[in-house]
Amino acid sequence: MRRQKSVQVERVATFGQRKVAPRVCIADGKKHIRTFLGEALEELGFITCECAAVTELSSVLKEQLPDLIVLGLPADGTEAGLMLKTLVEHEYDGKVLLIGPKNSIIVTAVRQLGEEFGVTMLPPLATPFSADGLRSSVALLLPAQTPPSPAVDVAEALKAGWLELWYQQKIDVHTLAPRGAEALVRLRHPTWGVVPPAYFIPDDRDPNFTALSEFVIKRALNDWHYFIGQHGPVDIAINLPISFLEDPASVGKLCRMIPDHPAFGGLTVEVKSTEIIQNLDLALDAAKRLRFHNIAISIDDLGVDWPSLMDVANFPFVEIKVDREFVTGCADNRLKQTVCRRIVELAKHAGVRTVAKGVETRADLVAIHEMGFDLAQGYLFGKPVNAKKFARAALARPVTVE
After folding, report:
1. Are 158 and 132 part of one and the same domain?
2. 133 and 182 share one domain
3. Would you say residue 400 lies in a domain?
4. At CA 40, angle to CA 134 and CA 357, rounded to 5?
5. Pick from 364, 344, 351: which is nearest to 302 by CA?
6. What is the pLDDT of residues 272-325, one digit of tens each?
7. DSSP string spanning 186-231?
8. Least buried of 49, 58, 70, 128, by fewest C-beta within 10 Å?
């Protein structure tokens, strides 16, 4: 029986009760493998770190205290054996997941060696593997409960640099070609991992909301420059509250930040339909003025309140996005189809494009195509991802529908 370090016993014993995100170290000699696994595990809620060789593992064990080591196996298992010995020397009490070809002699040998050393070895994950396969392999380490609300104060997050923008593609319903992306704010906490927006986005009356809005604007425009360097121009949409448009100073700052670049196609600002309808005069005025600064207003999450916009003359908005409540499952729901058709008719009469949010199945895609939607957005085409992964994956390949 190996002697256990008291600090690690305490950490493992309280794991789950503290409801913190699990930590994982990805040990593999190939950079692209570490990057791929890191992004996949971050999406599952892990806090990730990596090491390329056994010489780096000791410092990782001391500084990061990982709950899991994901060990990629090359053709030669010698390095993996040395890593297992290093784990024993540091009295590692977490788990090890081997990744390698199915029925591989090396995978079997390394797993047996780990068991002989007293290391807790998870069942190996055979390559190639799916996202569901990876999730199943690490399911025991995933927290059973979500962080309490609020998990973190947004002012602290802004100061510490924990906020990020993730991007989800908008797709042309008729051609399946990419047609821009929506920027969605995320928080990567050093303990909790990626925190859902519901746990940190403040009320728009919060004094920190303006700072959060300014962060979104600045980061989105910086990412636009990054995208054009990696792939080409991308039309970006951001979300702002109607209260932002009430402040002349904030609006003026936004206008001054718009890139003076020949490839910049404009910035779309998505505002909740309920806020627009409740402040219609303000929204109409803002939409008309901002058009001259290459900024367009989109009506977001429109649903059964669509008749409130029927009498708007000289419609100054650029698009209408239908609430996912009426899109997801619309293929088999005539009531949802009725709402969608009425909104599409309203948009066509006003001369603006329509976006269907929450498209998750082929059947729903066929349905929105038949109803006349212009663009679609949803998990059928991909989940939101960080800017680097979006540029590398989403922008570099044609859209396919499984």
Report:
1. no
2. no
3. no
4. 110
5. 344
6. 999 999 999 999 999 999 999 999 999 999 999 999 999 998 999 999 999 999
7. EEEETTTEEEPGGGTPPPTTSTTHHHHHHHHHHHHHHHHHHHHHHT
8. 128
In terms of phi and psi (left: phi > 0; alpha: psi -120 to 50; beta: otherwise), the region of 230 is: alpha
Residue 15: per-residue pLDDT: 36
Looking at the fold, whether 16 and 129 belong to one and the same domain comes out as yes
| Distance of alpha carbon 398 from alpha carbon 176, whole angstroms | 8
Distance between CA atoms of 328 and 177, rounded to whole angstroms? 21
The number of folded domains in the chain is: 2
Does residue 160 sit in the same domain as residue 124?
A: no
Neighbouring C-beta atoms of residue 75, cutoff 10 Å: 8
148 inside domain: no
What's the pLDDT tens digit per position in 208-218? 888 899 999 99
d(CA 213, CA 202): 11
Query: CA–CA separation, 123 vs 117, rounded Å?
Result: 16
pTM over 0.85: no
Q: What is the CATH number of the domain that holds 112?
A: 3.40.50.2300
Structural domain for 73, as ranges: 6-141
